[in-house]
Design goal:
The protein is about 40% helix and about 30% strand. It is α+β, with helices and mostly antiparallel strands. The protein is globular and about 55 Å long. The chain has 2 domains: about 1-105, Alpha-D-Glucose-1,6-Bisphosphate, subunit A, domain 3 (Alpha-D-Glucose-1,6-Bisphosphate, Chain A, domain 3, 3-Layer(aba) Sandwich); about 105-239, TATA-Binding Protein, CATH 3.30.310.
Length: about 240
């Protein structure tokens, strides 16, 4: 079984997939890339064959099953309604089920900050920001070391401490990612359709297998605090 997510979608999907014995693969941002991977697997261009289960992106696009080749809100709503009914029969809400997932797989929180920079001057400013981050990737963000720098345009992942590189098996795209030592991730990419540059932030906190709900609430608060720190630090970094 296979779950597909984009590079800026929560890594919690991968942890949940592995828990159930499924593989999880990443694609570039945009649901067309998820559907392209489905096509490549079915036609034998991407081996070995894996049975596609579902795929999703951070902007709420979701597809269960491969009979539609785009994000499918209709089936997603039907699945959500079925989940509500099922868990209601068990005396649970979806919020409670989400907390159970956090307790099992760790607490995760994501956010996105967008800067709109219109016109030719805006386009030049966006290019300058990306060029600066690519040429001189920060060694730390908000007091935490950057362990890995991923440049999807050049197709290389750099481990900053050893200077070792490895190839990223994705098509070229103007996306930069910074993986921090605490498991946080910051991604930067210009919008492909609007005069915007987008920054994606992802943080997580591991929880003990016997963690109590009160500990989960502390982990959630820690995630919220951390993501605010990253947002503020990155805004200062590019100004």
């Amino acid at each position: 079984p296979l779950v597909i997510k984009t590079v800026v979608t929560t890594d919690q999907q991968e942890k949940i997939a592995k828990h159930y014995g499924a593989a999880c693969e990443e694609t570039l941002t945009g649901f067309k890339w998820i559907c392209q991977l489905i096509e490549d697997i079915e036609t034998g261009k991407n081996l070995p064959y894996r049975q596609y289960v579902c795929g999703g992106e951070e902007s709420y696009g979701f597809l269960a099953g491969s009979f539609v080749r785009d994000k499918d809100a209709v089936s997603a709503c039907c699945i959500a309604a079925e989940m509500v009914a099922y868990y209601k029969s068990k005396g649970k809400t979806l919020t409670q089920v989400l907390d159970e997932l956090y307790l099992r797989h760790g607490a995760y929180l994501e956010s996105m900050v967008t800067f709109t920079l219109p016109g030719m001057d805006g386009a030049a400013r966006i290019a300058t920001i990306m060029d600066a981050l690519r040429a001189n990737p920060p060694k730390e963000i908000a007091g935490t070391l950057v362990e890995k720098f991923r440049d999807l345009h050049n197709g290389q992942e750099l481990e900053l401490s050893t200077k070792k590189t490895q190839a990223i098996p994705l098509p070229s795209s103007n996306v930069l990612q910074f993986i921090l030592s605490d498991g946080s991730k910051v991604s930067a990419r210009p919008s492909g359709t609007e005069p915007k540059i987008k920054f994606y932030f992802s943080v997580n906190r591991e929880l003990a297998s016997n963690a109590r709900p009160s500990e989960l609430e502390l982990a959630k608060a820690s995630c919220a605090k951390r993501i605010t720190e990253l947002e503020q630090a990155f805004k200062a970094l590019i100004n």
